[in-house]
Structures are given as structure tokens and as C-alpha cells.
Specification:
- The protein is an alpha/beta fold.
- It folds into two domains: 4-78, no CATH class; 92-363, Rossmann fold.
- It has 15 helices and eleven strands.
- The strands form two sheets. The protein has an eight-stranded mixed β-sheet, sandwiched between helices. A three-stranded antiparallel β-sheet has the order 1-3-2.
- Helix 5 links the parallel strand 6 (111-115) and strand 7.
- 44% of the residues are buried.
């Protein structure tokens, strides 16, 4: 609980231009609404809407608070209990070597570490995935360095370092063995972790991941030169949201029409974790720091390669479905499942991806 000078200091930060700073947002989330209401602080002035404050508002609203951001500032009414922000609770910050890492733990059972896509925050897993998996498993989700509520160190934006951060987080949580699941860049991260520490990774699931440094034909991959131009043309937020809000690459057209709520929630979650274009580009560049195809043969744990059967939009020398076929063929003993009528949003474009993942995990219990 915050009292006295500590509460006054944070109130001053919230009312000023420093609100966007990571430390301030961490304090805000970890403190909870009622800390600020205790001594009559029922509103904060000077706020501007941002992905981070919108994320905070949604988290508080989920606890039953009526939270509004208006001309007079941020106001909160109602609600029940304070958020528990300690290890084993819903959310916390782990102070690891080189970075402070935000994470959330839900459910009970065998641990499942869920690694997000490039520049995606942990919040994206809370759209459907955690509510589904946490019924049977303990889910661990996190913000990679440079995204969401984690720290933004100047160095370390590579697949190998992201994997090291994950191992450090597991150690911090006292988890010696887990199921490792990664989507897109997260699949590369979990592949790297499985190769480095097969004693920690009981099973590996790679979903809709890219080929990494090499094209499917064996040439050198590169990033799109049009990204900066598009961001300058339409703005950073619209660029990020467009990645989700489409039925050409992201979602099956029928699902996209019938489930606009899922699309909107996922787009909101992805945008909530963004900070700067520079940090976004660092995560984009990380895609080319790992050879997914070349490293596949080194994997020695039970592996599921998942991809939408229709995830076939070309990405500078590869497609996710083409990469999935190749990775599965190169990974010893891997299972390949291409989900019908599904595009790139493997775990959100219908329920086929989640059903396949659950079935695989149940067939490979850690205790076996």
C-alpha cells in the first residue's frame, strides 16, 4: 500500500508529463485503484490518452471499477479489492539480469510458458488463450524487453537473448520444467530455449513462425523497406492495428465478419504494448537474428508445429505455412498440424489452434 510521501510523489508523476514512463506505470498497476482513493485522491489531472493508460483503465475496469478518462482527468468509482501484484498473483515485475520483466500467472496445473509475437505484449494472450488454457494449466505470459510494461534496455534485442530472458523468468518463478509455446517470433524464441535447455522444456509448440535469417529457397532474408514509409503515411497506431484488422493476412473472412469483438480486442491488446517506433523496429530486426530452419534439427523435445492452412501470404521469401512444413520436416519427430480455414492468427482465428494445442499438451504430460 502507498501512503504519505510515496502517494504524494506518484500523484505528482501521474499529474505531469512523466506518466508515460515505465516506472510510473508499473507503480500504478501494482498499487491498485484503492491506494489512490484512500486519502481522497479520486482524480488525476493532466492525463493524455495513450496505449499504457488505456491498458491500465481496462485492467481496473475488469475489477469492477468505473474508470473514465475525461477533460478533468482520470476518475475511479466503486470496485472491490486491491489487485494482488506479487509472485503467484495475477501480475508482477521480475527483476532479472539486465531487464525488469512484466509477467502474469493464471490457473494451476502444469506450467505453460506462452511467448508472444514480435513487438506483441502479454495482453494479447488474455484474448481467449489464457481464459481457455488456464482451466487446465498454469499459464505464464510476459512482455519481452522493450514491450508493454517491461524495461527498455538499449541492448539485447535478439531471439537468443529473448530466450535467455525467458529462462531467467522461469528460474525467478521456481519453475524447473514447462511446456513452451510460441507464436510467430515467439516460436523462434521457444525453439532457441528448447535447444539451449531441453531439461527445462518438456514440449515445444511453434505456431506460425517465420523462417528467420534464410528464405525457403536458402537465400538471405530481409525486412520490408516500406515499413517506415507506411508508418509515416498512416501513423503508428493505424499501422499496428492494420496488422490485425484485416481478412487477407490475419483472419479468415467469415470469422472476421462474425467475430468483430475478437478482432477489436486483439487489436487493442497489441496496440496497448507499443512504446516507440524505434523500439518496434528493434523487435522487427530481431526476426533476422535466428535461423529457424537451420536450427530445427537441433531440437530434441516433443514438438508440435502449428499453422493455419491458409496462412500463405508471402513474407519476403517465405510464407508461414511453407515454413511450418519445412520446420516440421527438419525437426526430429515433430508433429505438423495445418488448421483448416485459418490464416495467420493461429490461436485467435477460430478455436482450431487452441483445441490442437490442448490435445498435444495433454498427450505429453510433464510428469511422464
Amino acid at each position: 500500500m502507498l501512503h504519505g510521501e510515496a502517494l504524494d510523489t506518484l500523484h505528482g508523476q501521474l499529474a505531469g508529463a512523466q506518466f508515460g514512463e515505465e516506472a510510473c506505470v508499473h507503480q500504478l498497476l501494482n498499487a491498485g485503484v484503492d491506494d489512490f482513493l484512500e486519502d481522497g485522491f479520486d482524480k488525476w489531472v493532466g492525463h493524455k490518452s495513450s496505449p499504457k493508460i488505456n491498458f491500465v483503465i481496462k485492467q481496473w475496469q475488469s475489477e469492477g471499477w468505473t474508470v473514465k478518462l475525461g477533460a478533468i482527468g482520470l476518475t475511479a468509482e466503486g470496485g472491490a479489492t486491491k489487485r494482488d501484484a506479487v509472485d503467484g498473483g495475477r501480475m508482477a515485475i521480475a527483476k532479472l539480469a539486465g531487464v525488469e520483466m512484466y509477467y502474469e500467472v493464471q490457473g494451476s496445473g502444469e506450467p505453460v510458458l506462452l511467448a508472444p509475437a514480435s513487438w506483441w505484449p502479454a495482453a494479447t494472450w488474455n484474448v481467449g488463450v489464457v481464459p481457455f488454457l488456464s482451466k487446465c494449466f498454469k499459464t505464464i505470459i510476459f512482455d519481452c524487453r522493450g514491450t508493454g510494461h517491461s524495461g527498455q534496455p538499449k541492448e539485447g534485442y535478439s531471439v537468443a537473448q529473448f530466450a535467455e530472458d525467458c529462462l531467467a523468468l522461469l528460474s525467478h518463478l521456481g519453475i524447473s520444467r514447462c511446456h513452451a509455446v510460441g507464436f510467430a517470433l515467439g516460436g523462434q524464441m521457444m525453439q532457441a530455449m528448447a535447444i539451449a535447455r531441453p531439461d527445462v522444456v518438456a514440449t515445444l509448440t511453434i505456431a506460425a513462425s517465420g523462417a528467420g535469417t534464410k528464405t525457403l529457397a536458402g537465400g538471405q532474408r530481409s525486412l520490408s523497406p516500406d515499413t517506415e514509409r507506411e508508418i509515416q503515411s498512416i501513423g503508428f497506431e493505424r499501422y499496428i492495428r492494420n496488422y490485425i484488422e484485416n481478412d487477407t493476412m490475419a483472419f479468415n473472412p467469415q470469422f472476421y465478419r462474425d467475430h468483430g469483438d475478437v478482432v477489436a480486442a486483439l487489436a487493442d491488446a497489441v496496440w496497448s504494448g507499443q512504446s516507440t517506433v524505434e523500439m518496434f523496429r528493434r523487435h522487427e530486426d530481431a526476426r533476422l537474428t535466428w535461423d529457424t530452419l537451420g536450427k530445427a534439427v537441433e531440437v530434441k523435445v516433443p514438438t508440435l508445429v502449428l499453422c493455419g492452412a491458409d496462412d500463405d501470404v508471402a513474407r519476403r521469401g517465405s510464407t508461414p505455412v511453407g515454413t511450418a512444413r519445412r520446420v516440421a520436416a527438419l525437426t526430429p519427430g515433430a508433429e505438423l498440424l495445418l488448421i483448416p480455414n485459418t490464416k495467420h492468427m493461429t490461436f485467435w482465428d477460430g478455436d482450431g489452434g487452441l483445441a490442437a494445442l490442448e490435445e498435444f499438451l495433454l498427450r505429453h504430460p510433464i510428469a511422464a
